[in-house]
Amino acid sequence: MPSVDVQDMRAFFDDYVVRDFPGRRAADGAKFQWPGDEWVTAEVREATYSTLLEPPPGQPWRSIVEIGPGSGKYTEMLLDRSMAKLIAFELSPALLDSMNQRCATAVASGRLDGRPIDWTSNDGLLSAIGPAVGTVDLFFAVDVFLMMDFQSTLAYLVSAANSLRVGGRFAATFGDADTQSGWDRMIRDTGRHSAFSLQPDTRFHWLSKSFLDDVFTRLGFRILTSVSGPDGGDHGPLDIARRYIVAELVDPAPGQALRRQLSGET
């Protein structure tokens, strides 16, 4: 089965920032300053933050890892609303540059460390996180795993299980196969994308609630929140075709065992 090269994906997002976004920004009367902000409304961003990123009562975030910050819309919100230090891993150099400009004060103070994703081994992300492994309070990714096959996503979930402290939280969005809006998006994309194309695309990868429940249990997590977008209940103006998950790490042993297995230690 052919697959898209990582360099092509970098170029895909870099091209959006450099070529496509300026035209969209001009058409919107410069309403949006940063690339990617035009994809969701302020109301959706606030509902997403409330659903996924609010810390437990009396337990403020201190250490955060973000995967795929884009230009940093949720990065900025977390930095503004906490005193945490945040490591953000981004595929696109152009988006990473936008995030660093947007959050320049946090970069200068050392609270934000934006890094390119350039690891290739199963243990690479943990090596990049370094001494923070096992101490992270929040490991999150908003609208990243939507467009990633689950085999690749699993490497990030194993990394999260090893990065978080016991009681730390994982939060993310996934393509929601269980809702009408998910079905509608599946049908729309059926005529747009081919599995045999080598071109980068924006197709979602679809997962069911029962499958995700099982995966997180196997990795030593307890799911705290698992809700669908606006057609899944009264959860505020969440985005369509997405499942929003927050899970607490309760047992690090399963993730540690999988890390050793994937790294060839057992």
Would you give an account of this structure?
- With 266 residues, the protein is α/β, with parallel strands linked by helices.
- The chain is 41% helix and 20% strand.
- It is built from ten helices and eight strands.
- Strands 1, 2, 3, 4, 5, 6, 7 and 8 form an eight-stranded mixed β-sheet that branches.
- Helix 7 packs across helix 10.
- The longest helix has 22 residues.
- The two termini are 29 Å apart.
List the helices and strands and how they pair.
Elements: H1 6-27, H2 42-53, E1 63-67, H3 73-81, E2 85-90, H4 93-102, H5 104-109, E3 112-116, H6 124-129, E4 136-141, H7 150-163, E5 164-176, H8 180-190, E6 206-207, H9 209-218, E7 221-228, E8 242-249, H10 253-262
Parallel strand pairs: 1-2, 1-4, 2-3, 4-5, 5-6
Antiparallel strand pairs: 5-8, 7-8
| CA-based gyration radius | 18 Å
Order of helices and strands: HHEHEHHEHEHEHEHEEH
Q: What is the CA-CA span between the terminal residues?
A: 29 Å
How many β strands by DSSP? 8
Helix content: 40-55%
Query: What is the number of helical segments per DSSP (H or I, 4+ residues)?
Result: 10
Please, what is the average pLDDT?
A: 88
Please outline the major beta sheet.
Answer: 8 strands, mixed
Residue stretches low in confidence (pLDDT < 50, at least 5 long) are none
**SSE class:** alpha/beta
Q: Based on CA inertia axes, which overall geometry fits?
A: globular
Question: Beta-sheet strand percentage?
Answer: 15-25%
In short:
The chain is α/β, with parallel strands linked by helices and 266 residues long. The chain has ten helices and eight strands. Strands 1, 2, 3, 4, 5, 6, 7 and 8 form an eight-stranded mixed beta sheet that branches.
